[in-house]
């Protein structure tokens, strides 16, 4: 299934392009196995972990576990690639993404078989003073920090477990880069403007 990641078609939007005097194309990234361009970055990060190219040099081997924190967009891709490669997977979803009701991304992620957990409350890891400061400077980051700390704790306390840390993972961009290279090749380098 990992071989089906990438190589998605470009679709020319004839009606849009006729009024702007340009050829306008969209990349059909929803045709990746999990339905997202995030499959590219998940594959790049997990393959890097297989080589030991992680933030702390840990290497995943057969039977290992991939751990990641996500708002819900990367989670299905990490779960899919982990399952395809035979790894266990644990996803911590940011608490604020889950609170208040039903979340479709959780259901999609669970379909690939990982253990899905909601991130800890920030109070588990941060002092009251740190929480007050974050609420002023970065209120939306409290649950992100807690989820990242959940992942770090799982990795530290379990053998053959790798936390991908997508936000700071140097291999994350390789998936993004492959998308750009693919578009460039499909259009024979004839690109005047690019948008996301």
H and E string: EHEHEHEHHEHHEH
The helix/strand class is alpha/beta
Helical percentage: 40-55%
Count helical runs: 8
Strand order of the largest sheet: 5-4-3-6
Main pleated sheet: 4 strands, parallel
The total beta strand count reads 6
Unreliably modeled segments: none
Ends: how far apart? Answer: 26 Å
Indicate the multimeric state: single chain
Attribute tags:
196 residues, two-stranded antiparallel sheet, alpha/beta, four-stranded parallel sheet, 8 helices
Explain how this protein is built:
This protein has eight helices and six strands; from the N terminus they run E-H-E-H-E-H-E-H-H-E-H-H-E-H. With 196 residues, it is an alpha/beta fold. The strands form two sheets. It has a four-stranded parallel β-sheet with strand order 5-4-3-6, with helices on both faces. It has a two-stranded antiparallel sheet with strand order 1-2. Helix 3 links the parallel strand 3 and strand 4. The longest helix has 15 residues.
Topology readout:
Blueprint: E1 10-12, H1 14-18, E2 25-27, H2 38-50, E3 65-70, H3 75-84, E4 88-93, H4 95-98, H5 104-111, E5 115-118, H6 128-137, H7 142-156, E6 161-163, H8 172-186
Parallel strand pairs: 3-4, 3-6, 4-5
Antiparallel strand pairs: 1-2
Helix pairs in contact: 2-3, 2-8, 3-5
């Amino acid at each position: 299934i990992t071989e089906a990641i990438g190589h998605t078609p470009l679709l020319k939007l004839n009606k849009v392009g006729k009024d702007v005097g340009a050829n306008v194309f969209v990349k059909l990234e929803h045709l990746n196995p999990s339905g997202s361009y995030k499959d590219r970055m998940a594959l790049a990060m997990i393959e890097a972990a297989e080589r030991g190219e992680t933030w702390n040099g840990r290497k995943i081997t057969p039977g290992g576990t991939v751990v990641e924190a996500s708002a819900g967009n990367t989670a299905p891709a990490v779960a899919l690639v982990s399952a395809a490669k035979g790894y266990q997977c644990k996803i911590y979803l940011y608490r604020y993404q889950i609170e208040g009701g039903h979340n479709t991304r959780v259901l999609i992620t669970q379909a690939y078989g990982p253990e899905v957990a909601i991130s800890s409350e920030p109070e588990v890891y941060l002092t009251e003073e740190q929480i007050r400061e974050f609420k002023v400077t970065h209120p939306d980051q409290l649950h992100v920090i807690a989820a990242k700390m959940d992942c770090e704790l799982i990795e530290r306390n379990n053998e053959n477990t790798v936390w991908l840390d997508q936000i700071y993972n140097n291999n994350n961009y390789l998936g993004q880069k492959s998308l750009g290279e693919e578009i460039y090749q499909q259009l024979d380098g004839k690109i005047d403007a690019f948008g996301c």
